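INFO  loader      accepted 1 record
INFO  loader      residues=380
INFO  predictor   begin
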Amino acid sequence: MSRLWAAAWPPRRGRPPSGFAISPALRGSHLQQGGLYVLLLLLPFSKAAVELSFSVLLIGWVLERLNPATRASTIWRSPRLRLVLFAGCAFLAVCAASIAVSGFPALSARGLVSKWLEYLLFTVIVADVCARPRVVTRALAFLAWSSFSVAGYAVIQAVFVLRSKAYAFHPLWYYKRMMGPYENPIDLATYLMVVGFVLLAYALTRRGPPRRWLGGLVALVVLCLAETRAVGAWLGAGAGLLAMAVLSPAFRRAGLIALLVAGALGAAALQREGRFSGVMARSDAGVMDRWAMWQAALGMIRDRPVLGHGVNTFMANYLDYWVGGDHTPRYAHNCYLQVAAETGLIGLAAFIALLGAAVHRMWLGLRVPRDAETPLLLGL
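INFO  predictor   done
INFO  writer      dumping tokens
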């Protein structure tokens, strides 16, 4: 990349001469980085940001692949990532094979392209983009600003909407829990649970005022996560905090203390609202709803255990296996059960192999001593 920059921007005046055309490789690099930053900044506020950023990333990636000078400049040629790449291709192959047994082949074909292929290609492209100098640092800055905007919006929304009956039509009045720019509190909690660890790890790599600012942002994110009152997200965050404490000696003491304090505060909040004893009880509405969805998924798996009912057809088949709860097409609310229902046990095995290959690659990265990016990898 440094040679490309030197060729594109001669040192004479720091700008291209008249009539100079930027090379396709450089345009591809700029497009990919711009697409990544747009995604990080706008994703919480717009579903269209996913399609927009993917289109920009894909165009930039294709431009680089078409240019002979940059065609081979991809980290996926590295032997270290060969297992991850092979597992991803194997899972896509099983998804494609499931179309042959699908009762809704057009729906399955569309889901294969618009869901799994798109998101796995997203992973391939973003990994290449983030391997470039300073991209990770810039991406983390965009993520920090985006999460600050989300948390700030959620706080302002909770303060003003719940205090004015003029907004009585707002969904926040139904949930009575912080939801921010999302459609429900659980979606906000999921976003905060994920970015919270990345921001915490980012703060560990900084010094001075940046660390203090990031520490304040992490505290704001935790506060908003608590106000979503999404117990599942709390449990996920607790598991992540425990993992960080176990894997990072520098974080161990503070992490365990934070975990104990957060657990006590969460239990107290649930007890105060009278929800503590009912959180995991079968009589809880949310638990009953999910139990019905999981039973439907298990029924699908029993009927077609090999290649499933076809990728992207869980909702299309749901009412045929409905056992109770809301009589509308639903997702399984369990990733593994839904993958098994749609692509069979072969698909589930390929999916777990893909996750295992990625986690194994990250585990090897965590074992590199005194690597400056190790906290970031841990946060991810």
